[in-house]
Amino acid sequence: MDNVSVIKHPVVDRYLTYLRDKTTDTALFRRAMANIGVILAYHALDDLELDETEIETPIQKTKGYIPGQEVVIIPILRAGLSLVDGIVSFMPEAKVGHVGVYRNEETHQPVNYYHNLPGGIDAALNLVVDPMLATGGSGSHALSFLKENGAKKIKFVSLIAAPEGIEKLQKTHPDVPIITASIDEKLNEHAYIVPGLGDAGDRYFGTL
Ligand code: PRP
Ligand code: URA
């Protein structure tokens, strides 16, 4: 699929197994999300622009690198927050913006209820973060909102994606690369990802 990177790594498979397993408790679920967030960030930032600088080691002067652009992490509330700790631990200078979108349970249509974006998203590398890409409604909505607010360079970071959600994002935002740890089989009649991991927000926040 164009513009979609699926991370293949044995450790990712182990974390995904914890996350999918319905007997995993909240503490382990949170830890697995944080750890997998680091790996997702490693891949999502693999083309981060760098500027050269000069530093001095205790031995002599040498070349070093600093980010040549700002990184802004934008979790889609609530469940997107589950990956932020991991991503921030990998890229501590990143700014964090927030977009609140939930799915109407009957229509499955996205409803926007909150936003708070830092300045400078027009020049930044923006990582929109949501563990679940199901119908793609929430993701597509969030991406349109960010573009309306000036964002140009955006990547969509998800943990598990349904083919339907990927298709929707590729149609509505073909310029936005998708990074995911798994492309699952399909959506069920309630628009949940199969096999998926259930409701990511409820499992992460313990609100089941
Ligand atoms: C979940 C998930 C995504 C959305 C994905 O959020 O975190 O944002 O569903 O579904 P979609 O691709 O079909 O739009 P939810 O509405 O459950 O809200 P929450 O994160 O507050 O729990
Ligand atoms: N949102 C979730 O949390 N899980 C799904 O499977 C689909 C949407």
What would you say this structure looks like, in words?
By secondary structure, the chain is of the alpha/beta class. It has a single domain (4-49, 64-205), classed as Rossmann fold (3-Layer(aba) Sandwich), CATH 3.40.50.2020. It has six helices and 15 strands. Helix 1 runs antiparallel to helix 2 (26-44) and helix 2 crosses helix 3. The protein is globular, with a radius of gyration of 17 Å. The model has no long low-confidence stretch (mean pLDDT 97). It binds 1-O-pyrophosphono-5-O-phosphono-alpha-D-ribofuranose and uracil. 1-O-pyrophosphono-5-O-phosphono-alpha-D-ribofuranose binds at residues 76-79, 101-103, 108, 110, 130, 132-139, 165, 191, 199-201.
Strand/helix succession: EHHEEEHEEEEEHEEHEEEEH
The percentage of residues in β strands lies in 25-35%
N-to-C CA distance: 34 Å
Radius of gyration over C-alpha positions, nearest whole angstrom: 17 Å
The class by helix and strand makeup works out as alpha/beta
CATH structural fold name: Rossmann fold
Whole-number total of structural domains: 1
Keywords:
Rossmann fold; 15 strands; three-stranded parallel β-sheet; 208 residues; binds 1-O-pyrophosphono-5-O-phosphono-alpha-D-ribofuranose; 6 helices; 31% helix
Topology:
Elements lengths: L3 E3 L3 H11 L5 H19 L5 E7 L4 E7 L3 E7 L6 H7 L4 E2 L1 E6 L6 E7 L8 E5 L2 E2 L3 H12 L4 E5 L2 E2 L1 H10 L5 E3 L1 E2 L2 E2 L5 E2 L5 H6 L3
Parallel strand pairs: 1-12, 4-5, 4-6, 4-8, 8-10, 9-11, 10-12, 11-13
Antiparallel strand pairs: 2-3, 6-7, 14-15
Bound molecules: 1-O-pyrophosphono-5-O-phosphono-alpha-D-ribofuranose (PRP) and uracil.
The site of 1-O-pyrophosphono-5-O-phosphono-alpha-D-ribofuranose (PRP) has 23 residues, from strand 4, strand 6, strand 9, helix 4 and helix 6.
